[in-house]
Amino acid sequence: MRRFLLSVLILLVSLCAACSRSGQVAQGAAPEAMQVKVQPVQEESVGEYTEYLSTLRSRDSSVLQPQVEGHITQIYVKAGDKVAAGQPLLQIDPLKQQATVSSQEATVRARQAALVLAERELERKKRLAAEGVISRQELDQAQSAYDSASSEVAAMGASVREQQAQLRYYTVRAPAAGTVGDIPVRVGDRVTTSSILTTVDKGGELEAYISLPAEKSAAVRRGMKVQFLDASGEPAGESRINFISPRVDTENQLLLVKAPVPNDNGRYRNAQVVNVRILWSESRAPVIPVLAVSRVSGELFAFVAEDEGGKTVAKQRLLKVGDVVGNNYVVNDGVKPGERLITTNVQMLADGMPIAPQS
């Protein structure tokens, strides 16, 4: 029995000694380096900008309105058709105008007959006056009657030509080659000179109409960069301001500026509303991903990898940042271009912690 108890006691003492040595080894071992990914801090061109809504307008688009009133009797085209210059698009009922022209033409013929009679009478009076049969007064009256009849014929002829020219407006034609837009009128509709019949778009250059607050008048200038933004808010094209209105709109205190639209791929359409960004100034500054930044007590921090005593450690940097551009912070102070920025496990790092960086 004594031998058994002695054996158990020796075993327990051995186990305790082993545990003590294991703890000492663990306590004296260096902490394991954390695996992190690093990337060099990039420097990019950033700027101070403001976003506005812009309306795109074509310089080669025509809005067709009738020059006469009446009912639509025919529509020769449909929306989306390609048309040539001068091609008939719509017909307005011309019957009333044709009747007016016919009536005036008949009046002209009557006036012309009266003019022929007055001319014959004048010639007869001239012969009688030469023979001394009639007085000078009767000759003058014949001359006056002829002149009056001649003037009436000339006036009526001009009126007929005017009404005939007016008759041409009852056929609405394409002012230039292009594509027909929406046709809001239908056969039978009565239209006036203020009615919109359709549009013809040649498909040429577009201009962006941008309205700025009046207080920006002193800051805006020709040649300023304009960025056109896509649906996600990212720049999809660039242009420059080429027109600044010389006056502010008195009703809304807005200043109109224009810029040509980059539209080689045909993504933009006439009358489309898009977001644009006007860059007031540009400079180069470091940018770092938003996910590489941590917030502690309202302050923003990032970690960079530095070599120290033959090993690589994480160094915490206090950041002063500007705007967020896309998924990046613009850094005003805290890191420099080219430094190795830690982009993963930033929430688990501490200043001076050993790391194993991976590109």
Provide structural commentary.
By secondary structure, the chain is α+β, with helices and mostly antiparallel strands. It folds into four domains: 91 residues, conserved putative lor/sdh protein from methanococcus maripaludis s2 fold (Beta Barrel), CATH 2.40.420; 96 residues, Efflux pump adaptor protein, beta barrel domain (Elongation Factor Tu (Ef-tu), domain 3); 52 residues, OB fold (Dihydrolipoamide Acetyltransferase, E2P) (Beta Barrel); 76 residues, Orthogonal Bundle (Helix Hairpins), CATH 1.10.287. Helix content is 27%, strand content 38%. It is built from three helices and 23 strands. Strands 2, 11, 12, 13, 14, 15, 16, 20 and 21 form a nine-stranded antiparallel sheet that branches. The protein has a four-stranded antiparallel sheet with strand order 3-10-8-5, with no helix packed on it. A hairpin with a 5-residue loop joins strand 12 and strand 13. Helix 2 runs antiparallel to helix 3. It is rod-shaped and about 140 Å long.
Question: What does the secondary structure layout of this molecule look like, with pairings?
Answer:
Layout: H1 2-28, E1 34-40, E2 42-58, E3 61-64, E4 70-75, E5 82-83, E6 88-92, H2 95-130, H3 136-168, E7 171-173, E8 178-180, E9 190-191, E10 198-201, E11 206-213, E12 225-229, E13 235-240, E14 243-244, E15 254-260, E16 273-289, E17 294-296, E18 299-308, E19 311-318, E20 320-325, E21 328-333, E22 340-342, E23 355-358
Parallel strand pairs: 1-23
Antiparallel strand pairs: 1-22, 2-11, 2-16, 3-10, 4-6, 4-9, 5-8, 6-7, 8-10, 11-15, 12-13, 12-16, 14-15, 16-21, 17-18, 18-19, 20-21
Helix pairs in contact: 2-3
